[in-house]
Design brief:
568 residues; alpha/beta; Glucose Oxidase, domain 1; Enzyme I, Chain A, domain 2; TIM Barrel; 3 domains; eight-stranded mixed sheet; eight-stranded parallel beta barrel; 13% strand
Length: 568
């Protein structure tokens, strides 16, 4: 059995088809006729653009226009004057052959993304390689076998699958896929979830033992790959496969339900998004709002700071698509571990504890005010709520609110219409904010507990460090005590308390958090229906009884054991 990262739920059983990529051997050489070489490169570029446009048409037909945005971004790369200009310059000035020039520039560009301490940006390196390989194959006359031409049912096994590869997958033929590298936020993983295709990525070199025709079991939820299973294992997983399909069919009925317990307690189930492209899944899964719009991805996808108008259009688009449902937009959380190429910042010893989020915004008020103006303007088009990240004291909160009020005043004098009752909240993700939540609650309209960072700060565990990842635990008593404190302090002040970290979608913890009194759970869109099933089949009174003794335990394992023994 091989264990990796499950990125798309489901169980598949089928024969392996191993994709062995032909590695292009690029040789460095000098050219005598530079103009001829430039023409050769430009022709390959044009052919790539034509081919990519065909891919986009196919994706729109199969997955919808939202998912085609991934490939629109690829198209932008092939039409990017800076990226393409760097290759052309290497040909014209250094007189290198087109293949070598392309590979050199693409490798350098991908390395910039890979060296960013941010999973989303690191995985954009795969996009650079995808578009570059497309041009390189044309230059070298390499005919790439098309996944779209696969005729027999199979489970794809590969070192990696590019987004273009994944977009060609025919669900009638491809049962699942397994890759050696990759992560949860890679575009390939995103498309797998859109296709509702079981997928396991980041399996490492262990998958190299798999041969064509081997029988595989792929569990996309647990991240498990079983090669040539025995009869008992095969029978067990066939049963699990049937149960998963039945559960999936049952979950559909929860899409339009209210998130109400059996005894009448109603909470809100919202989704976390990074762009307008994510809204389709939010609506499909019946989310009651957006609990976290991570605006940093808007900045990361550009070559310069987005203008007020660009931001306004993005926020407005999301609000209009949500049609009156609440949308909590987090102000820029950049810096330290999330870098922008066009915004140089000093290297830091402890970037997670450094110059980032609200700290950067209060220092670079020019950036902050541009975003705040866009947010205030967009508030006229829906139920927008503004949320400040990484607040550690009341002074920061008051400074941020003051700048927001300044923007509202300016826009009012300009005759701009906006929501005069715009709600303001903060993320509780620093222990000091949790401890002082009774004081902070008097200054805001809502709290949102950001458990991803709250856990790592509380436990002093870098959540990106594999060597100590076992210490990063949702169930740690200190974490649960802080969460309960924040909920209680928020309610005493008469404000709602939400949660927008991964913990909010943990179906074993949802009853505990319900018992604690959490008002809103925000998670990935794909987790909504499972969470709603848990809530609508729970009794609030029973959840309160379940959560009552939790804070008396001294160890995470005791808490896990107690919940497992008492969950009905």
């Amino acid at each position: 059995m091989l264990k990796a990262i499950g990125v798309s739920h489901g169980i598949a059983i089928g024969k392996a088809l191993v994709i062995r990529e032909e590695v292009a051997q690029v040789k460095e050489s000098k050219v005598l006729d530079v103009e001829k070489e430039l023409i050769r490169f430009n022709n390959a570029l044009e052919q790539s653009i034509t081919d990519l446009k065909k891919v986009i048409e196919g994706v729109i037909e199969k997955l919808g226009s939202e998912k085609a945005e991934i490939f629109e971004a690829h198209l932008c790369m092939l039409e990017d004057p800076e990226f393409i200009g760097s290759i052309q310059k290497k040909i014209s000035d250094d007189k290198f052959n087109a293949e070598f020039s392309l590979q050199t520039v693409a490798t350098e560009t991908a390395a910039i993304f890979e060296n960013m301490d941010n999973e989303y940006m690191t995985e954009r390196a795969a996009d650079i390689r995808d578009v570059s390989k497309r041009v390189l194959n044309i230059l070298m006359g390499i005919k790439v076998a098309s996944i779209a031409e696969i005729e027999d049912e199979c489970i794809l096994v590969a070192k990696d699958l590019t987004p273009s590869d994944t977009a060609q997958i025919d669900k009638a033929k491809i049962l699942a896929f397994v890759t050696e590298i990759g992560g949860r936020t890679a575009h390939t993983s995103i498309i797998a979830r859109s296709l509702e295709l079981p997928a396991v990525v980041g399996a490492g070199t262990g998958i190299r033992i798999i041969k064509d025709g081997d029988l595989l079991i792929v569990d996309g939820e647990e991240g498990i790959i079983i090669v040539n299973p025995d009869e008992k294992t095969l029978t067990d997983y066939k049963k699990l496969q049937i149960e998963f399909i039945e559960l999936k069919n049952q979950l559909g009925k929860y899409a339009q339900m209210a998130s109400t317990t059996t005894d009448g307690k109603t909470v809100e189930l919202a989704a976390n998004i990074g762009s307008t492209a994510d809204v389709e899944a939010v609506l499909k899964n019946g989310a009651e709002g957006i609990g976290l719009f991570r605006t940093e991805f808007l900045y990361m996808s550009k070559d310069a700071l987005p203008t007020e108008e660009e931001q306004f259009e993005e926020y407005k688009s999301v609000l209009e698509k949500m049609n009156g449902k609440p949308v909590i937009i987090r102000t820029l959380d950049i810096g330290g571990d999330k870098k922008l190429n066009y915004l140089p910042m000093d290297e830091e010893m402890n970037p997670f504890l450094g110059y980032r989020a609200i700290r950067l915004c209060l220092d670079r008020t020019d950036i902050f005010i541009t975003q705040l103006r866009a947010l205030v303007r967009a508030s006229a088009y829906g139920k927008l709520k503004v949320m400040f990240p990484m607040i550690c004291n009341i002074q920061e909160l008051r400074m941020a609110k003051k700048l927001l009020e300044q923007c509202k005043s300016e826009l009012k004098s300009e005759g701009v219409v906006f929501d005069e009752n715009l709600e303001v909240g903060i993320m509780i993700e620093i222990p000091s904010a949790a401890v002082m939540s009774d004081v902070l609650a008097k200054e805001v309209d809502f709290f949102s507990i950001g458990t991803n960072d709250l856990i790592q700060y509380t436990l002093a565990v870098d959540r990106m460090n594999e060597k100590i990842s076992y210490l990063y635990d949702f169930y740690h008593p200190a974490v649960l005590r802080l969460i309960k404190t924040v909920i209680d302090n928020g309610h005493k002040a008469g404000i709602k308390v939400n949660m927008c970290g991964e913990m909010a979608g943990d179906t074993n913890l949802i009853p505990v958090l319900l018992g604690f009194g959490l008002d809103e759970f925000s998670m990935s869109a794909s987790s909504i229906l499972r969470a709603r099933k848990t809530i609508t089949n729970s009794s609030f009174e029973e959840c309160q009884k379940l959560s009552g003794p939790i804070l008396s335990f001294g160890e995470a394992d005791e808490i896990k054991g107690y919940i497992k023994a008492n969950l009905k």
